[in-house]
Amino acid sequence: MKIRRAAVATVSTVAALGVVSLSATAADAAPARPANSAHSPYKVKSMHKVGKSWAVETTSILKNANAACNKADHLFYKKPKKGYVYVVVQFTGKKLTGGKKQNLGDGIITNLRAKDGKQYGQDYGIVAPHDAANSKAVGKNHKTSGGFVYMVKKSDVKAGHLEAMVEGTGVHDETIYFFNT
């Protein structure tokens, strides 16, 4: 009777992000790291599918957007809290499905995550230059673009590691990650 040696695997899970990585010992090769995770984000200006309805790319990042946001909507502009700055991330999205036309602000949800894991949600009270909520509504196979605003601690911007987390608005849409600034 032959005894087969079993490979020993370790599993580490980052539950909040749904990221699982496996590493195996013995003769088994370790599976490749996921094509996209919090630890291996996509590069700026590379388009990737988000859920069923959209493919998205990050086109630019403005790390101090206070003046740009003030110019975009001077009437309703409010200064960021002390020690914070507005960051604007511009995205381009391509609608992959038919049905009702959508603008980018209705099609995706975004957050920024700092080096220490702190998440910053969209600041809906501030208008970005070329704001996503006002982007062109598009149908299947058409593109639109727009910006999302986040109020971020200056120290987190200075630390030089921000990731954009993007997910579709569908029930089971996965999260994808873009750039380390």
Which key terms come to mind for this protein?
mainly beta; 4-stranded antiparallel beta sheet; 9% helix; Immunoglobulin-like; disordered N terminus; globular; 181 residues; 10 strands
Structure description:
- The relative contact order is 0.21.
- The chain has helices spanning 66-72, 104-107, 154-159, and strands at 9-14, 19-24, 48-50, 54-62, 84-95, 108-114, 119-121, 143-153, 162-168, 175-178.
- It is built from 3 helices and 10 strands, in the order ββββαβαβββαββ.
- It has one domain: Immunoglobulin-like (Sandwich).
- The longest helix has 7 residues, at 66-72.
- The termini are far apart.
- Mean pLDDT is 77; it is low at 1-33.
- The protein is mainly β and 181 residues long.
- A 4-stranded antiparallel sheet has the order 3-4-5-8. The chain has a 4-stranded antiparallel sheet with strand order 7-6-9-10.
- Helices cover 9% and strands 38% of the residues.
Number of strands: 10
What is the molecular shape?
globular
Low-confidence stretches: 1-33
Widest beta sheet: strand line-up = 3-4-5-8
Rg estimate, integer Å: 19 Å
Mean pLDDT: 77
Q: From the 3D structure, determine the CATH topology.
A: Immunoglobulin-like
Question: Helix-strand pattern, N to C?
Answer: EEEEHEHEEEHEE
Tell me the structural class: mainly beta
Q: What fraction of the residues are assigned to beta strands by DSSP? A: 35-45%
User: Which CATH first-tier class would you pick?
Assistant: Mainly Beta
For the largest beta-sheet, the strand count, sense and barrel status come to: 4 strands, antiparallel
Question: What is the second-level CATH architecture?
Answer: Sandwich
Which bin fits the share of residues in helices?
A: under 10%
